[in-house]
Each structure stands twice: as structure tokens, then as C-alpha cells.
Amino acid sequence: MKYVLVTGGVVSGLGKGVTASSIGVVLKACGLRVTSIKIDPYLNTDAGTMSPFEHGEVFVLDDGGEVDLDLGNYERFLDVRLTRDNNITTGKIYQSVIEKERRGDYLGKTVQVVPHITDAIKNWIESVASIPVDGKSGPADVCVIELGGTVGDIESMPFIEALRQLSFSVDKENFCLIHVSLVPVLGVVGEQKTKPTQHSVRELRALGLTPDLLACRSAQPLMGNTKEKLSQFCHVPVANILNIHDVPNIWHVPLLLRNQNAHEVILKQLGLVSNSTPPELQGWTQMAESYDSLMTSVKIALVGKYTDLSDSYLSVVKALLHACVACSFRPSIQWIAASDLEDESERMTPEAYAVAWETLKSSSCILIPGGFGDRGVQGMILAAKYARENKVPYLGICLGMQISVIEIARSILGMERANSEEFDSETSQRVIMYMPEVSKTHMGSTMRLGSRRTFFQHPGCLTSKLYGNATYVDERHRHRYEVDPAYVEKLETSGIQFVGSDESGKRMEVIELPNHPYYIGVQFHPEFKSRPIKPSALFLGLILAGTGQLEGYLSSLSDTKSEAPQ
Ligand code: GLN
How far apart, in whole angstroms, are the C-alpha atoms of residue 366 and residue 383? Predict the structure, then answer.
């Protein structure tokens, strides 16, 4: 196994994840099989209990792992399916060591950070690196490891030490260290400053790791003398100094790296032979360039709770982007805080209320993403009602589907108290209920999680058509509540159709409104499996409907049945 370690210095938020995934893309384009590991030096076992407000979205994997959003970047960029173990946290490592200690595996020994924690980290990396993630058998050729945080943080010290030991034990040609750093420009003179990079490389070297390459983030391209200075003071050849300057969209990053011959330097470092022709990256080039030239935009109202931090809905945003590019439109996401749509909300100011409604009404489609807790629920219900009554294309994801069911029960069936047990545990019209098998005492990893199969009950329904006339589809889940099966029959009298369910036929997965141009609610999260060149079917449907292209698209689809939609 060849390892490419990506560390970060100077400041956080440098786009280390995008850099690391782009390196993976370039190596993959050289014909190598690439996997990845993200290390998060926090004590949470996984990201499942972390707030999207603080940490961005919780990404969900096929195996139900609730992980850092960077794993989403890897899956999208490398088109792989990772496992929960590809995300290492301090919490997981300590948990495994403490469990072993309790079992008596270290009997007689004092259990310490070095060597026990560091050994556990090394073993974890080595065993996870060999899990195939690209659908082929046997381990990948290269494992890209991204160390979260900034070099020098107290939290990441055991990881740095473990990685130092790993670099030593696997031999020089199996290990390549890329340090991502920032080159800021100060003052009117506009000089590119190398000192922060020098300091962070010094810090890294003091910990026993020497970077083979530098990836310098900067606003403008690095100047020749800046590179020379960096080379001299950081002990890295000029050819090994990559520059990731600001680009119009992130799909340019792999191209930028390829244009700087990053692949050659990395392959050389890893003792691999480089093909004389540079990797083509045709798909990436086309995507990056066509996105830049998109002129017409489509307004998508995203009505949610965590709208102040766009990373909270990162995969939804990416899935919209993929779908828009496929439809040749530039996405114009209109962030609407659901509570601003409520006239009785405490947060509401008359101006915010007016702006929120104006924005909603001027959008071509409406999306309500997943969420937890009751803040903004009333606003979401109003948005879903608006979409239904005004025939605006609508996609409700997880909470968004539950909202639709509540709205329809209230407005059409006159069930005034219709609610989810999540928001009103006492309601007599509990259309959304707590799932019986989900724990009521433990929050971590106890939801219905990961890839589950949805069977289409109504052949020929819009959702099945969009999935290529599929009879079933596997999508990822993350929820505690579901439509109460006891209400399904009654709910259907409103005109709503439950067109997809799990294998029992009782757990509702998909709703549609047949007399509406595009009104779909899903209990699963289609955003997690959307890929740049393979947009998620339901996002594509939403944008096609919002831009008046759905009819044409549907009639162009052949009616061959797809048995394996994935
Ligand atoms: N809070 C809802 C549930 O737990 C919806 C979850 C979600 O949208 N991911 O079922």
C-alpha cells in the first residue's frame, strides 16, 4: 500500500479536504485505484451527535456510518463507497484501546498514549486502507489520508506520532507527505508572505515529519520568487511546490494540480512509473468549463433550519449543482430560514417575513431538506403548502417528506392536530410516529441508518421512472420517525400516493401527488449518492421540472426495466 498523507498548517478551512480529494482524482486518472481515510482528532466517536450549525452536515455512508462531511467529498470526487471505518476519530481509537484494556489484552502493562494509542492508530490505518471501496476486489493501490485540524494542535499529536512511525515502517517509496498551507498577501505592496508556511513546516519537522510536497493556497498564482523562497526555507524542491490559487469552481482543482504535474512528482515519490502522457481528466475539464459558462440560472428555494451555514446542507447543495449542470442551468440557491415564513415566530421581523415570502414565491422550485427538532416546522409546512397549491416543483427530503404528510393531513383531511411525535408527543393525530425499533435512551448511531431498499409499489410512478423505470432503489437513510402505517389508508384519501415502501410494505418511503407537475417526498436522502457526472435522479427531476424540461426528458426515456438501478 502506498500512502499519501495530507496535513494542514497555518489556519483551518484551507480546503484540505478538496485538495486531498483532488489529489486522489489525479492519481485515479493515472490508472491507480485510490481509497481514502479522514482522521478527525475529536473525542466524539462519530459525527452523528454533532450539530450541523457548528460542524456542517453529517454525511451518511452505505453502512450507516455517520461521518465527517469530507468523506462526502471523497465519495463524490473519487466515485467510491467508503465505510464508517474510513473515518478515524480520537473517540473511536480510545474506545477500542479501552475495550481491549478491559478485556485484559494488555494484562500487566501500563496502557499509554505511546505506544498503545499510536499502535491502534497505525493498525487501524493499515487495515482500513486495504478495504476495497471502488467495487473491485482486492486493496487499492494508494490510500490518501487526510489529517484534520492544523499541525501543532494538541489533539492531533498522537496521530502525528503514529503517522511518523507509519512513514518510517513502510519505507520511503510508500509514503508521500503533502502539506497544505496558506500564502497570504499583506499590505498595499501585495507581497506574498511565506513566513506562515515556513513556521508550519518547521513545526511539522520538529514532530519528525518532512513534507515531500507543499500545496500552497493563495488568492493569486504564486510568483516565481515566492516559490523559490518557500523551497529554500522549507526544504522542498521548487517542482514539488504546488499552488492552489482561487479558481471559479472546485472542479478546477484537479485540473490545476494536473497542470502543475502534481501526478509526476507524487508518482516519483511513491516509486511508481509515470505514463508519459498526462492524465486526461476529460470529464472534469468539461464539467469545470461548462459550469463557468452557464448563463441562465434557476432559483431553488431551500427552506431549512440551518441556513446560516451552507455546509450544513453540503450534499444537498452539491446534488443541486450536479443536477443543474446536467440541465445546463446555474443554480441560484435561495436560502430561506423556515422560521422567517411563520408570522407568529419569535424570530420573525416584518422585513424578514416579507423577504422570505417574496423569495419563496419567486423561486422555480422548492426543497425542504432533512432536519431535527421543531424550530421552523410551521414555516416548512407553509412552504410545502405553497408548493402544493401553486404547483411549484417540490422535493421533500426525510423531514421534508414528513412535513408534506402533516401539511396534507391538516389542509386536505381537516386533521387539525396532525403532527409528528417529534414535535408534539401528545397529539391525538400522530401521522408521523417514533419508529418502534429505535432506542429512546441512546442518541449515538441508533437511528435507522444507511443504505436500505425501497420498492416501488406503483409501477410507472414518477419516482420509479426517474430512477430509470426501476422496481427498487437503494438509498441512504437517517431518521427516527416514520409515517404511521395506521394512517396510510386515510392519508391516501387526500390524493397523496405512497408509491414506495421498504420490504415489509408497511414502512412508507416515497410520496407523490399525481395531479401536480412535480411533488415528491422521500424518507431517504438521495443527496448522499449524487455524483458530479451522475446526478441523483430526484434532484435531476426537480431541476428539470423547475426549468420546464421534465416532460421532454420523461418522453425521451426508454421504458426498459432496470433491475439494478445502482
Ligand atoms: N427528524 C426526523 C426523523 O428523525 C427527520 C430526520 C431527517 O430529516 N434526517 O425522522
Answer: 8
